[in-house]
Amino acid sequence: MDSTIAKLRTATTGTPYEGRLFLVGGIVRDKHLAERPDEDIDIVLEGDAAQLADFLHKTGVADHPPVTYPRFGTAMVSVSGRQVELVGARKESYDRASRKPATAPGTLLDDVLRRDFTINTLLENLHTGEILDLTGQAFADIDKRIIRTPLDPHVTFDDDPLRMLRAIRFATRFGFAIDPATYTAIRERSHRLSIVSAERIRAEFSKIVMAPSAPTGLEMLRETGLLAQFAPELVAMRGVTQNIHHIHDVWNHTLKTLELIPADSGIILKLAALLHDVGKPETRSVDEQGTVHFYRHEAVGAEIARHLMRRLTFANALISRVAFLISMHLRVGEYDQTWSDAAVRRLIRDADDHLDDLVALTIADKGAANPATQHVDIDAFRARVRKVHDELAGQRINSPLSGREIIDLLGLEPGPQIGAIKEYLESRIVEGSLLAGDKAGAVELLLRKYGKKSDE
After folding, report:
1. In the chain, what are the domains?
2. Which residues contact 163 (CB under 8 A, 6 or more apart)?
């Protein structure tokens, strides 16, 4: 990043642009916070951003021809492989039914006042390094660790309702507090999130889930009413009481589970933790003895999670993996030393390549439950899995019957079904109900499952 900035500085030194270009946004904020710099490079100038982009292209600084957005007075260039956004200082005004602004040229002060939060309004002169705080609040709010809007928060959030999610995302990422007036405005304007696209909501929501203080951020989302706008299924978990195996309601148990997921985990495991009990409100029942049950909540929850994630436009592959973890999240926790090797093999087979994530989810889930009643010996489980894995590694797991033998036995035509039947026989070997190479046993299994040929 420093090399990109140096290249831009060198290219514009001795030109009319010298002293008129300012770094703005996350890159300046993070330098003051001593954080890892934001990947984005944003430069603002009082002038025409498209002309600057054209200059950078003609002088060979930009890697490719620029992309310009005349309506917004912005341009994108690539310098040393890094994207740089160039912005002409501007004023903005919004239609309440849209988040796309009408723009007009403005001053640097106009430009910083239209931005989301004071912490993102610092300007750094590209050539002199001088840092400007035109709002008079940015340095103080960074030092006091406060998220605040540069204008009346109602105006800021009416202009772009996504900023309400961004406020919580920054608070969650940096461990900042949200200014009380700003927080109140989020509550009062939460319904405005309805005009924001699902894709943009998903992007901010994902960053909150991945943040170090994700449980705090999620509680803010719930408390402000934002969560109800895009994930009411999560809000429904609050106040759902559980049985003796838990000391929290479903919502607070979920937040604790997410907190216990390893910090370096990916989005799939963290979403699985957040959604693992989303089926409980719908499946809660109380028997005659007053005991609370959540029968099949893992299956119901997996389906609810699919609908929620599709609505938020998550990728299909991610949705499938998260839903699978939810559907399987009870299995590892049910383990005890009385399990047969065949039962362990079945779990290994069913978990496929998700076993490590299931173990991590189980550790967090049990850790967030009642310690007096909930315990699983994970070390013993892992040792058992290693033992069974080692035994399986010594075997060749191949179908005892060839494709031709299966065709002749069952009177089938060649096709994909034959491969599926061979996989079925191999799975029986893995779980211990069929010995490797046992042709007679394989024949017996198939005849019992599929019946004899129709001409016999």
Report:
1. 2-139 (3.30.460.10), 231-392 (1.10.3210), 403-450 (no CATH)
2. 116, 117, 149, 156, 157
pLDDT tens across 98-129, in order? 666 667 788 999 999 999 999 999 999 999 99
The pTM assigned to this predicted structure is 0.83
The token duo for 361 is 């989810």
**pLDDT tens digits for range 15-50:** 999 999 999 999 999 988 877 766 789 999 988 999
What is the Cα–Cα distance from 70 to 355, expressed in whole angstroms?
51
